[in-house]
Amino acid sequence: MKKKRWLSIFGVLVLIICGVVAYIYLNSDMYTVNQVNSKMNSMIRGKNYKQMKAVANNQDTYIFLRSLSSKDRVNDTSDFQGGSDENAYYVTVVKNQDLNVYMRKTGIASWEIRRVEKQ
């Protein structure tokens, strides 16, 4: 009987620890940088011109995004540079071009690209 009780307590503690670790990761800069890379690469890979037009800060940025090959990928994404959950600012690189990327938190673990601009 005592063994079952200890196993139950141990199981609850493991679940609590996993929950805390997941919460910390989902609210970390590492997760948001991953979201920047994932969202940008998905837009580029899918040649999503409608989304590119919607997020491009100006015509020059839109033309650059549109010119990218579906095989191009962002890299060297910076840590959080400033802002808030509504306007988090990052810098990333694609084809040797620096891009300012502004992200918005849309849910507990979801982010979306708000704006992209060429430097």
From TrEMBL:
<protein>
    <submittedName>
        <fullName>Uncharacterized protein</fullName>
    </submittedName>
</protein>
